[in-house]
Amino acid sequence: MRKIREILRLGWGLSRGVREIARSVGISHSTVSDVLARAEAAGIVWPLPDDFDDAQLQHRVYPVIRTGTDKPEPDWSYVHRELSRKGVTRELLWIEYRACHPDGYVYSRFCQLYRKWLAKVDVVLRQHHRAGEKMFVDFAGQTVPIVDPVTGEIFHAPVFVATLGASSYTYAEVLRSQELQFWAGAHSRAFEFFGGVTEVVVSDHLKSGVSRSCRYDPDLNPTYQELATHYGTVIIPARPKKPRDKAKVEAAVSVVSTHVLAPLRDRRFFSLQEANQAVAAGVKALNERKFQNLDASRRSLYEQLDRPALKPLPPERYVLAHWKKARVNIDYHIQVESNYYSVPYQLAKEEVDVRFTDAVVEVLFRGKRVAGHVRSFGRGVYVTHDGHRPAAHRKHLEWTPSRLIRWASETGPAAARVVSHIITSKPHPEQGYRACLGIISLGKKYGPERLEAASTRALACNAVSYRSLKSILSLGLDRVALEEPQEVVLVPQHANVRGATYYARKGAGP
What's the CA gap between 287 and 190, in Å, rounded? Predict the structure, then answer.
């Protein structure tokens, strides 16, 4: 008010210019012009009367423009709920409001009053979340003691909490531990509880879900990422030490701890099933309870906002899979648990990704599936596909003793006897496979007739081996007729001929 009086004194009392007054008072020249115009319009004259105080001066220069209390007040709860829907804006809601109340508030006043109403609402509902967009998940800080009915030991079971962004509809479950398999299973059951899947899942930087924590580019656990792919959602971990990124679930954890877990503090549970029944009853009551400053409950908001916007569940629940990296051994097998599974032999010494469930073992190389096996639960079992072996290995394994002998029989009886003799003369039949395969190659090179003739000569000479047959064929001895055995001439009995008994005596001399 002192500046207004000074403007009037300089302008009307001393007849100074607008810009000069502005420099003297320290305000813009446009403001000086506005004050002089307002004072003249209000009928103010200089000098001011002695009883003309600052309140009267302010009222005359800047009269209060009343908006009127008879203007229809919008339903701010309805406005807040509608803003959670996809594509709905404040301007659209204001246009609908003015369509029903042409004499209602202007748009700027409409937004101002909404912000004023929103400031009085609980922090849980002050955040803007689009319907069906986000599910926030975390573990509650409070655990539930479970007593082992046999040993009496107590273990503290963690509590998984999930909540939807737009409605704050909440799910809670008592788990055996925070390990990956229980963490992933809780997500599946949460989606089924909500009856659909959100576009985004916001989680904390738990080791169960994030393998490498990073503020800007965290690495998800492969199993957690696969779960997201199965349900068609996206995992966005909150930034480390930034609880505001998941304030919705932080508030849900607080509410669950107060309204669900705290009333159960004096109860003794002897199984997870018993504890979950009690928690489910508490969560149901929580979702039915109305908010303090909003004429709605979590369930009613869920039915109105989130449920219609959720994506449908996949036909089957996610099957938990474990992932690991493995180095392919030179025998083109990898180890999973206590057993060994084959991969294409070309991948020997390469690093591959292994995905295994209770039913199957899958091997991926550079993102491409290269092998799949039914999982074995023995110890030291080799599970091998023939197609993974080199061609030479497959051919070697195709031969059996009976097949080798059958092939030799087609060449001739002598060849069959040679092969049979080689196989039966070894401590283990497989030790004779290589020699038999060598004889087969001789038959391809020299022909079956020559091999049969060579086999006959080898049997006659008692030289049954691959080397003997090869030597006979290379020297062409198979084409030479066998000599008839000569008749043995017996030496007649004579007194001067010493017999065997003579040489058998010890110390016999000449």
Answer: 14
**Token pair for 381:** 């079992």
Q: Amino acid identity of 63?
A: P
Confidence (pTM): 0.50
Distance between CA atoms of 187 and 227, rounded to whole angstroms?
Answer: 9
Q: What is the DSSP string of 133-179?
A: TEEEEEE-S--EEEE-TTT--EEEE-EEEEEETTT--EEEEE-S-SS
Class of 134-309 in CATH: alpha beta
The pLDDT tens digits for 216-265 are 445 577 888 888 888 998 888 876 655 555 566 678 888 888 888 888 88
Which residues partner with 351 through β-bridges?
Answer: 327
Q: Are the beta carbons of 415 and 404 closer than 8 angstroms?
A: no
Is the Cβ–Cβ distance between 197 and 230 less than 8 Å?
Answer: no
- pLDDT tens digits, one per residue of 272-329: 999 999 999 999 999 998 887 677 888 998 998 888 989 999 998 888 888 888 998 8
What's the rounded Cα separation, in Å, for the pair 80 and 272? 39
Sign of CA dihedral 455, 461, 464, 467: negative
Tokens of 351: 């690093």
Q: Which residues contact 192 (CB under 8 A, 6 or more apart)?
A: 313, 317
Neighbours of 55 (CB within 10 A): 9
Is the preceding peptide bond at 263 cis, omega within 30 degrees of 0? no
181-193 confidence digits (pLDDT tens): 888 889 999 999 9
Q: At what angle do helices 76-83 and 107-118 cross, to 10 degrees?
A: 90
CA gap 24, 441 in Å, rounded:
117
Residue 95 CA, chain-centre distance (Å), reads 44
Residue spans of the domains in the chain: they are: 2-61, 76-120, 134-309, 322-388, 399-479
Task: Write the pLDDT tens digit of every residue in 166-175.
Answer: 888 999 999 9
Tokens of 91: 């301007």
